[in-house]
TrEMBL record:
Name of this protein: Flagellar motor switch protein FliM
Pfam families reported in the protein's UniProt record: FliM (PF02154), FliMN_C (PF01052)
Originating species: Paenibacillus glycanilyticus
SUPFAM superfamilies membership: CheC-like, Surface presentation of antigens (SPOA)
Main location: other
Cited CDD domains: FliM
C-alpha cells in the first residue's frame, strides 16, 4: 500500500530541502539502490503472457468441444467455459484440490510426460447420475466409487480426450491416452513439487449442478512446443499456404474419388400389392416417352442427358448433352 503524506509532512520535507538539511541527489540515489524486485524461486515464471494467451485460445476451443461432447453423451444441458489460465507450482495445485476428487492421469504423444484432468466430485457424480438414468444431481455425501462407477467414468473421460486432441491441432498433433484414474491427490506425483505448471480452470454446469474441471499441464511436458505458442507462430501458421506438393497430392486424391453415376429410365407409382405381385414378364409403365433422353445423375445432381444402347452385348448409355446449372434447375422444375 502506498503511504500518503499529510500537508504538514509535505511542508516539513520542502523546508528541509530548502535549508540544506536534506540533499535531493542523495534521495534519488537511495531510490535507485532500493529498486529490488522480489523473486520467489518456488513460483518460477516459465510461461510468458504470450504463452498464457495462446493457451487460453486453445482451451476455449477445448471447452466448446467438451460442451458438445458431454451434451450428447449425457443428453442434458451442459455448459463449460474457461475461467482462468495461470501458472503455479505443482505442489500448490495439489493442495488446492479436494482430498476426494477425480484425477484422470493421461499422456499425449509425442509429448513426453504426464498431465492431469481433475474433475470436481460434484461434476463427476452428476455425470454418473445421468449415465445411470437419473436427473444429473450430485449426492450430498461423497463416498468412494464402486468398480462399476469407475469403469463408467473412465469410458466417459477416455473419449473426452478426443476434444483435447482437436483443440491442439493448430499447435501439434497429439494422441491423448488415459493411463489411470485416481481419487486421492496424495497418490499422484507426476512431477516434482516445485515444477511450474499451467493450470486451466473450466467452470462446468450440468443441469443445476456446478463445479470445476482443472487441466494441469507441467511446463516440462510442453516445453518442446513452447515456441509454437507465441502469437507470431500462431498467426503465421494460420496464413500458411499449401506447398505445390500438397496441392498435387490433393488433386490426385480428388481425381481418384469414386462417385455413383445413375441413368434414370423413368419413374412409376404402383401400390404395395402390385409390387408384391410382380412376376417375370410383367411390364411397368414409366412416366416418360421412349424418345425422351435419359437423365444421368452424378451423386444426387443431374449432369448429363443421354440415350440407351449396348456395347459388345452390354447395356450402355451414350452422353448426348451436358446439363448446365441453369438447365438443371429448369429440368428439376
Amino acid at each position: 500500500m502506498v503511504d500518503v503524506l499529510s500537508q504538514n509532512e509535505i511542508d516539513a520535507l520542502l523546508a528541509a530541502l530548502s535549508s540544506g538539511e536534506m540533499d535531493a541527489d542523495e534521495l534519488k540515489k537511495e531510490e535507485v539502490t532500493r529498486k529490488v524486485r522480489v523473486y520467489d524461486f518456488k513460483r518460477a515464471t516459465r510461461f510468458s503472457k504470450d504463452h498464457i494467451r495462446s493457451l487460453t485460445r486453445i482451451h476455449e476451443n477445448f471447452a466448446r468441444y467438451l460442451t458438445t461432447y458431454f451434451s450428447a453423451q449425457l443428453r442434458t444441458f451442459v455448459q463449460i467455459n474457461v475461467v482462468q489460465v495461470e501458472q503455479l507450482p505443482y505442489d500448490e495445485f495439489i493442495r488446492s484440490i479436494p482430498k476426494m476428487t477425480i484425477l484422470n492421469i493421461f499422456e499425449a504423444e509425442p509429448l513426453e510426460g504426464r498431465m492431469v484432468l481433475e474433475v470436481h466430485p460434484n461434476v463427476a457424480y452428476a455425470m454418473l447420475d445421468r449415465m445411470l438414468g437419473g436427473q444429473g444431481t450430485a449426492p450430498t455425501k461423497i463416498n468412494n466409487m464402486t468398480e462399476i462407477e469407475t469403469i463408467i467414468l473412465e469410458r466417459i473421460f477416455a473419449r473426452a480426450f478426443e476434444s483435447l486432441q482437436e483443440a491442439w491441432k493448430t499447435i501439434i498433433d497429439i494422441s491423448p491416452r488415459l493411463e489411470a484414474m485416481e481419487t486421492n491427490p496424495q497418490f499422484m506425483q507426476i512431477v516434482s513439487p516445485n515444477e511450474t505448471i499451467a493450470l486451466i480452470s473450466l467452470s462446468t454446469k450440468i443441469g443445476d449442478t456446478t463445479g470445476m474441471i482443472n487441466l494441469c499441464i507441467p511446463h516440462v511436458v510442453i516445453e518442446p512446443v513452447m515456441p509454437r505458442l507465441s502469437a507470431h507462430h500462431w498467426f503465421v501458421s494460420q496464413k500458411k499456404e499449401r506447398i505445390p506438393e500438397e496441392v498435387e497430392m490433393l488433386e490426385q486424391r480428388v481425381t481418384k474419388a469414386k462417385l455413383p453415376i445413375v441413368a434414370e429410365l423413368g419413374e412409376s407409382v404402383i401400390t404395395i400389392k402390385e409390387f408384391l405381385g410382380l412376376a417375370v414378364g410383367d411390364v411397368i409403365s414409366l412416366n416418360k416417352p421412349i424418345d425422351d433422353g435419359l437423365r444421368i445423375k452424378v451423386g444426387e445432381k443431374l449432369k448429363f442427358i443421354g440415350s440407351p444402347g449396348s456395347v459388345k452385348d452390354r447395356i450402355a448409355v451414350q452422353v448426348d448433352q451436358v446439363v448446365s446449372e441453369g438447365a438443371e434447375e429448369e429440368n428439376d422444375e
